[in-house]
Amino acid sequence: MATYIDWRLRGPGVDLCNCAFGCPCQFNAQPTHGKCEAAVGFHIVEGHFGDTSLADLHVACTFAWPGPIHEGQGQCQAFIDERASEMQRQALLTILCGQEQEPTAFFAIFASTVTTLHEPQFVPVEVRTDRAALTASIRVPGAIDGRVEPIRNPMDGSPHRAKVVLPEGFEFAEADCASASFNTAGAIALDYVGTNAMLYDLHMGPSGIIRA
Fold first, then answer.
1. Is the pLDDT of residue 36 over 90?
2. What InterPro entries does its record include (predicted)?
3. Cα–Cα distance, 70 to 30 (Å, whole number)
4. Residue 15 has pLDDT above 90, yes or no
5. How many CA atoms does the CB half-sphere of 42 hold within 13 Å?
6. Could you tell me the pTM of the whole model?
């Protein structure tokens, strides 16, 4: 059995993707438009990699797959909080690449679908979420401008609340559904309005989701 470095990430996460609200991928269905493109981010409230603290750092990534994620051939570019030290940067890149996680866990699974890993950027990154208000943002100046607002009732404009509950999920067990608008630059250029957003609590370690 493989032995992994002890690490943990805990904090709010947000996924913005090109699919319809709720995202068919969460139901093992085909993506809405045949391909998967996304911007994701999380704010590490508590975290460490071995003896290296990762607390209060922000991370974002852009992704693009030509088809469903599980078919691979994906691209990824990571944006790491410029405040991170060299040790923190290497720790976060190691985690994102799935190098210190069981192969059936979230980061390792996603890493296995990526064939083009663009040069990571160490820049200002800000990820903000408010699940009660169904709002969030991912800001990387010049690279990611992502905004989340509630899905609106088409009759009166009131916020519509919906959740995705995945008791055996490998990224999250429960997420709030919302509406995303995002555009990205850099190695992966995306531009979407009124597509799927997921707000969730990230709690991850070498074996995957920490459910305790």
1. yes
2. DUF1326, UCP033303
3. 10
4. yes
5. 23
6. 0.95
